[in-house]
Amino acid sequence: MRSEVVGALRGWMKEPAGDPGRVHEEGRRVRAAIEEARDQVAHLLRVRPRQVVFTSGGTEAVNAAVWGATRARPGGRVLCAAVEHSSVRDSSVRLAEVEDLPVDRQGRIDPDGVTAALGGPGDELPALVHCQWANHEVGTLQPVAHVVEMCRRRGVLVHVDAAAACGHLDLDLGELDADLVSVSGHKFGGPPGVGALVVRRGLRVDPYLVGGQQERGRRAGMEPVGAIVGLGAAAAALAADGVARLTHEAARARDQIDRILSSALAVDGVELVGNPDPAGRLPHLVCLGVAGVEAEPVLLGLDRAGVAAHSGSSCASESLEPSPVLEAMGEDPSRSLRLSVGWTTTEDDVDAFAAAFAPVVAGLRSLR
């Protein structure tokens, strides 16, 4: 978590407990803290505060989006590419018939494929279209604005999973004007266990969690006030001085990823997976394909050198199945390596990877 978040949490823990739904002084103070955080998140995302619905994280926000959209058009299909996050795919399959959207070798959604799937005049319209802002495994940016525009013309709701992009790109959700956008706090230095669903002005969908009138009747349950305060502090830190800090962090992340790529691609049999154009992918994340060795031993070798990395292989994830993202792109998940940097990443961290990667790969290849 960012230092501003830790400071905000420490300060909040000293405050008296109170139910924000009550009119006594303690309740009003809690309500004021929640609404201040809502203003801070809205300012970062360039939307109105009333559009921000706090959730327990990106996964709940996604589930709420799918639930609301499919309830609004019962029986309608959901259009979803295989490169979407598992929370997007799994929540959609549970509630509707899902039609796959095609992607290219870079993991990019084909806008023409979306147009074809929407159908022509007289065809039954889908209930929802998913289009992530950026891919969480390979970093590829999607044609979000184009897809939102196409869906708006046809009167179809569209959900944008912006969890991987929020806090790393300057997102103007007001200009995008998507129906539903999900974000997650821990992705940009906020606390774990908190996120938001941003709902387009004028859109009304059934709430996913019921049993109370919290969040203006859009999400029931006592608010996780400390986490919300922390999320607001993270958003405020990035939005300060006209998102100057976000811009600076993104530029530094891009430089660090460029150094990581340079050292990795110097090793024979290593290639970039995803969009080769830096402008077409996230600044802080890169995926590599490593020929001749499987991912798990590479991860273990890097871990011994003090470098934490990830892979799309089933052995390196919580799932028993390999990454559907990489399979959809025609890549081998068992030989993938995903590296990312964050606001705390130092040049020494990057040097540690550069020093360890080639020897780890060479040592493993020598065992064949």
Account of the protein in words:
By secondary structure, the protein is an alpha/beta fold. It has 2 domains: 3-240, Aspartate Aminotransferase, domain 2, CATH 3.40.640; 244-365, Aspartate Aminotransferase, domain 1 (Alpha-Beta Complex), CATH 3.90.1150. Helices cover 43% and strands 12% of the residues. It contains 12 helices and 10 strands. It has helices at 3-13, 25-45, 58-72, 86-95, 111-118, 144-154, 173-176, 214-217, 225-265, 295-304, 324-328, 347-365; strands at residues 52-55, 78-81, 98-101, 128-130, 157-161, 180-184, 195-199, 270-273, 285-290, 336-340. It has a 7-stranded mixed beta sheet with strand order 1-7-6-5-4-2-3, sandwiched between helices.
